[in-house]
Amino acid sequence: MTVGANERTTSAARIWLDEEGILNVLSLGVASTEESVREFLAAKDDLVGSDAVPMLLHAKDWPKGSPRSWGLFISVLENLSYAVAVVASPTTLRGMGAFPKIFDDLLIPFRVFESEEPALVFLRQHLND
Fold first, then answer.
1. Residue 33 CA, distance from chain mean position
2. pLDDT by residue for the chain (129 residues), tens digit each?
3. pTM to 2 decimals?
4. Sheet holding 55-58, edge to edge
């Protein structure tokens, strides 16, 4: 894991906290594994502690992860973030299936966008939640 003041790099993602307090997660094009999710969780805690923060997932190059990696991520999502925006390509979006809608309906605001600006507008609406 590379350490910088407001940025960390894991085996699968570059993670940084922007000036607005939004945690950005940029996929490095590597499929998620349980270990890479654990690396992400450690990097997130290192950057912002255990507080839930709004997250922007830059997922245009996000290959499908293992079911166990998604299970681990899903099990802690409510404690990680109080709003999630995903910027995804149409191909990535198809691979996500009903996943975003299920979370949006059951747990936290969770939306998918094709570009970054509307995703940021959505997250800014939740910054003070």
1. 14
2. 344 468 999 999 999 999 999 999 998 988 888 898 899 999 999 999 998 999 999 987 666 676 787 777 777 778 888 899 989 876 666 656 556 566 655 678 888 898 999 999 999 999 866
3. 0.83
4. 2-3, 7-9, 13-17, 23-27, 55-58, 84-87, 110-113
How many residues would you count in the chain? 129
| E strand spans, the chain | 2-3, 7-9, 13-17, 23-27, 55-58, 84-87, 110-113
Domains in the chain, please, with CATH? 2-124 (3.30.750.24)
- Count the neighbouring beta carbons within 10 Å of the beta carbon of residue 7: 14
> Which amino acid is it at 19?
E
With tokens 């094709």, the residue in question is 114
N-to-C CA span, the chain: 30
CA pair distance 101, 80, nearest whole angstrom: 18
